[in-house]
Structures are given as structure tokens and as C-alpha cells.
Recover the amino acids of this structure.
């Protein structure tokens, strides 16, 4: 229930201030009724599932973009 309330609060307030669990950088999660910037980063469903199992919360945009680039470069090799 606590996570749901955090998401609702973020939607109303325009984002959540977080620390990236991957790199430690402070960032603002951009969750809103329209979605979030992270949904625009191309990651396959298996990778997203793996991230959900490894981390409790969102990662920063830079870490997600780096991961997306690494995955796409592996696929094009």
C-alpha cells in the first residue's frame, strides 16, 4: 500500500526525488498520468523484469539509457 501512495503522491506533485540504486545519483522520477520518461527508453520485457527483481525503485535516466545502449549494441554484434 505504501508504494501505491508514493506513486499517487508523485503524480499529484509532479515527481519523486530519488537516489538511483545503480549509480547513487539523485534524480526526479517523472511519473505522471501520462507515464514517465523511463517508458520511452527501449528495454525488452525480460530486461525490465530483471531490473524489477534487482532494484526496489526507479533508476536514473542515464543508467537506463546506458543499459539500453549496451543491450542494443549486443544485439547488433
Amino acid at each position: 500500500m505504501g508504494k501505491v501512495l508514493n506513486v499517487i503522491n508523485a503524480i499529484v506533485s509532479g515527481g519523486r526525488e530519488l537516489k538511483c540504486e545503480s549509480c547513487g545519483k539523485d534524480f526526479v522520477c517523472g511519473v505522471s498520468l501520462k507515464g514517465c520518461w523511463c517508458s520511452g527508453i527501449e528495454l525488452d520485457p525480460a530486461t525490465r523484469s530483471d531490473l524489477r527483481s534487482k532494484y526496489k525503485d526507479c533508476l536514473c535516466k542515464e543508467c537506463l539509457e546506458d543499459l539500453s545502449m549496451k543491450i542494443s549494441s549486443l544485439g547488433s554484434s
Summary: Residues 2-75 form one domain.
